[in-house]
Design goal:
Order of helices and strands: HH
Structural class: mainly alpha
Distance between the termini: 27 Å
Oligomer: single chain
Length: 66
């Protein structure tokens, strides 16, 4: 698998999760997860955070390094 295909896989997963998150926010009538009382126990947000993390490290694991 080429590096570009791998990149596309992680970016596609992230774009999907962004859409799911936006729909959830719209359904709960909030503009940010920070405004939602379910923020600490939200599987939708957890999946979004995981997708962001995976897109940053391309699924290789490890820690956040800036």
């Amino acid at each position: 698998m080429s590096q570009q295909q791998e990149f596309d896989q992680w970016q596609l997963a992230l774009k999907t999760q962004i859409q799911v998150l936006k729909e959830c926010q719209q359904n709960h009538q909030v503009s940010s997860c920070m405004q939602c009382d379910k923020i600490l126990d939200c599987p939708t947000r957890d999946e979004y955070v995981k997708a962001v993390y995976d897109s940053m490290n391309k699924g290789t694991g490890g820690g956040f390094e800036f």
